[in-house]
């Protein structure tokens, strides 16, 4: 094995490792984004706290004071 072939194998292996790790990081970020996309954000008018709940509900009680708030619209 010449030095140029050895160098080509090392560079190819490094690029393969970088590509696989980039795909893994991208999948992890997509999962965290999908989790956020399935939640609704609420702002409590009584105690001024911000909280989230599962998507699909228009109003949720505040976990701190129990006041029922409607979801924020962006
Ligand atoms: Zn509250």
Q: Outline the biggest β-sheet.
A: 2 strands, antiparallel
Order of helices and strands: HEEEE
Q: What are the bound molecules?
A: zinc ion
Strand content: 15-25%
Q: Report the structural category.
A: alpha+beta
Q: Mind explaining what this structure looks like?
A:
- The protein is of the alpha+beta class and 74 residues long.
- The protein folds into 2 domains: 1-37; 40-74, no CATH class.
- Helix content is 47%, strand content 22%.
- It contains 1 helix and 4 strands.
- The protein has a two-stranded antiparallel ribbon with strand order 1-2.
- The site of zinc ion has 8 residues, from loops.
Would you kindly provide a brief summary of this structure?
By secondary structure, the chain is α+β, with helices and mostly antiparallel strands. The protein is 47% helix and 22% strand. It has a two-stranded antiparallel ribbon. The protein has a two-stranded antiparallel sheet with strand order 3-4.
Summary keywords:
about 70 residues; alpha+beta; 2 domains; two-stranded antiparallel ribbon; two-stranded antiparallel sheet; binds zinc ion
Question: What's the helix and strand layout?
Answer:
Elements: H1 3-37, E1 39-43, E2 50-54, E3 59-61, E4 68-70
Antiparallel strand pairs: 1-2, 3-4
Bound molecules: zinc ion (ZN).
């Amino acid at each position: 094995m010449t030095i140029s072939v050895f160098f080509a194998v090392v560079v190819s292996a490094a690029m393969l490792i970088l590509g696989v790790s980039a795909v893994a990081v991208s999948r992890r970020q997509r999962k965290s984004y999908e989790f956020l996309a399935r939640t609704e954000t609420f702002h409590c008018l009584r105690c001024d706290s911000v909280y989230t709940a599962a998507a699909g509900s228009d109003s949720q009680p505040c976990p701190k004071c129990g006041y029922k708030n409607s979801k924020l619209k962006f």
